[in-house]
UniProtKB/TrEMBL annotation:
<protein>
    <recommendedName>
        <fullName>Glutamine--fructose-6-phosphate aminotransferase [isomerizing]</fullName>
        <ecNumber>2.6.1.16</ecNumber>
    </recommendedName>
</protein>
<comment type="function">
    <text>Catalyzes the first step in hexosamine metabolism, converting fructose-6P into glucosamine-6P using glutamine as a nitrogen source.</text>
</comment>
<dbReference type="GO" id="GO:0006002">
    <property type="term" value="P:fructose 6-phosphate metabolic process"/>
</dbReference>
<feature type="active site" description="For Fru-6P isomerization activity">
    <location>
        <position position="365"/>
    </location>
</feature>
<feature type="domain" description="SIS">
    <location>
        <begin position="219"/>
        <end position="360"/>
    </location>
</feature>
<dbReference type="GO" id="GO:0097367">
    <property type="term" value="F:carbohydrate derivative binding"/>
</dbReference>
<dbReference type="GO" id="GO:0004360">
    <property type="term" value="F:glutamine-fructose-6-phosphate transaminase (isomerizing) activity"/>
</dbReference>
<keyword id="KW-0808">Transferase</keyword>
<dbReference type="GO" id="GO:0005829">
    <property type="term" value="C:cytosol"/>
</dbReference>
<keyword id="KW-0963">Cytoplasm</keyword>
<keyword id="KW-0032">Aminotransferase</keyword>
<dbReference type="GO" id="GO:0006047">
    <property type="term" value="P:UDP-N-acetylglucosamine metabolic process"/>
</dbReference>
<keyword id="KW-0677">Repeat</keyword>
<keyword id="KW-0315">Glutamine amidotransferase</keyword>
<comment type="subunit">
    <text>Homodimer.</text>
</comment>
<dbReference type="GO" id="GO:0006487">
    <property type="term" value="P:protein N-linked glycosylation"/>
</dbReference>
<dbReference type="GO" id="GO:0005975">
    <property type="term" value="P:carbohydrate metabolic process"/>
</dbReference>
Length: 370
């Protein structure tokens, strides 16, 4: 009913709008922004164990795997520990070089995904410590792990994950700060700055959501009947491009692919013509110039560009009419913010096409069989 959807047409839309609260609930009590103190008592690892970690293995499926990909950038940059990221169905069937100095982290909204669960069981048998990032209290994964970081996103009903994803990102950023604090790889001043930025991102998303939605609604009239869609991004926003493509294909059935911008010339650029829409995530971050030169290659081949960039960037409207601006936030938090227009693009297109947004064909909320 409309009542259980709080007046929203679909659970997915309701859940997109619940993201500021979900992020805040996930960071609440775990971070004191002014002092920069981060605390994760439920992590189940003492400081000595944390200092002894030599490698981290991240295991997940679907949208949760995209959160893992973002975390690799964060942890390697701020903690200096090598991170490998696996799709759980690959992890469980390849040769695993794990031991007690490797921390295995599963990321799962449900805590019940069969492949992810099998992955942590194997890792545990090999002596690895298991931490799980999970949204469902008491789920199988949380019971089997040595430690848990709960995302407090609340129940997610829409099959396509939204608030669980941004809450996973918040939890993984918290974990990065915590590991950096214990291992002393992040200066106290930087810890304060990053913690402050994390807490602040919820408010930024809250403030921007209505504007992003109305801009997307206006834009989709020109894109909703597309046959294909590309999403591109660099660095921290590469996994967000993957997530945008996944959302769109899941709920609108438009063929979509996500690519690292720099990889375009190794194949997908062959697809670009006047009928190919490309959403490019181009914040003014450390890889901005590189991203723009990739976008220019798309423009030169008449691709239909939708650019998501930093408010005030006057170069973007010279490349396309379809520019959506987001405020400047700390570069490290861009993935949380840039996810929002990608989710809303998928939602509005699927809704415009009359698709069953909350229950897309052939998909299940939780995949408990292999
Ligand atoms: C299914 C869902 C996805 C989800 C994936 C992993 O495919 O439809 O939305 O990302 O499972 O689920 P998990 O609960 O492990 O995060």
């Amino acid at each position: 009913s409309m009542a259980e959807k709080a007046g929203f047409k679909h659970f997915m839309l309701k859940e997109i709008f619940e993201q500021p609260e979900a992020i805040l609930n996930t960071v609440k009590g775990r971070i004191i922004p002014d002092s920069g103190q981060v605390d994760l008592p439920e992590i189940g690892l003492d400081d000595e164990t944390i200092r002894g970690i030599e490698r981290i293995a991240l295991v997940a499926c679907g949208t949760s795997w995209h959160a893992a990909l973002v975390a690799k950038y964060w942890i390697e940059k701020w903690v200096g520990v090598p991170v490998e990221v696996d799709i759980a169905s690959e992890f469980r069937y390849r040769t695993l070089l794990l031991n007690d100095r490797v921390l295995t982290i599963s990321i799962s909204q449900s805590g019940e995904t069969a492949d992810t669960l099998a992955g942590i069981r194997l890792a545990s048998q090999l002596g690895s410590r298991i931490l799980t990032i999970c949204n469902v209290v008491g789920s199988t994964m949380t019971r089997e792990a040595d430690g848990v970081i709960y995302t407090h996103a609340g129940p997610e009903i829409g099959v396509a994950s939204t608030k669980a994803f941004t809450s996973q990102l918040a939890a993984l950023f918290l974990l990065t700060l915590y590991l950096g604090k214990v291992r002393e790889t992040i200066e106290p001043e930087t810890l304060r700055e990053l913690g402050h930025a994390l807490v602040g991102i919820a408010g930024v998303i809250e403030e921007e959501l209505p504007t992003i939605r109305s801009q997307i609604q206006e834009l989709i009239e020109r894109y909703y009947d597309s046959r294909d869609f590309l999403f591109v991004g660099r660095g921290l926003n590469f996994p967000i491009a993957l997530e945008g493509a996944l959302k769109l294909k899941e709920i609108s059935y438009i063929h979509a692919e996500g690519y690292a911008s720099g990889e375009l010339k190794h194949g997908p650029i062959a697809l670009i013509d006047k009928d190919m829409p490309v959403m490019a995530l181009v914040p003014r971050d450390g890889v901005y110039q590189k991203s723009i030169s990739n976008v220019e290659e798309i423009k030169a081949r008449q691709g239909r560009l939708v650019l998501i960039g930093t408010r005030g960037d006057e170069h973007l409207p010279t490349l396309t009419d379809d520019v959506l601006y987001l405020p400047r936030v700390h570069d490290e938090l861009n993935p949380l913010l840039y996810t929002i227009p990608a989710q809303l693009l998928a939602y509005e297109i699927a809704n415009r096409r009359g698709c069953d947004v909350d229950q897309p064909r052939n998909l299940a909320k939780s995949v408990t069989v292999e």
